[in-house]
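Readers outside the structure-tokenisation community will struggle with the description of the input data as it stands. Showing the layout once, in full, would remove most of the difficulty. For illustration, here is how one protein appears when written out as sequence plus structure tokens:
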Amino acid sequence: MLFAFFITATTIIGQEDTKINEILTKKIEYNKTHRTGKGFKIQLYNGGESRAYNIKSNFEATYGIVAVIVPELPDWKVQVGNYKTRLEADRALLLFKEKFSGAIILETKIYL
């Protein structure tokens, strides 16, 4: 009886190890194409939902750059960019401040 239990338990553990290895392999492949690191974004707006959508569409129409709405309820944020350096973010901020005077730079995790 004890011998049969040992064989069954070993088989189950072997199957679990295979599944774990498959998941780890998928995660490694995903990380190769979805790398993140320290970087900067520009936040154009922080406030109500309807105004956030208006600012997003206005920004995209003006600059042809995709903006993202980040809901952190009760606030809605409009953010742009994945800048690797502060200098890149500063240059973009100078351009965007002409129409979006409340824009600020945020240090955050970005996709590289």
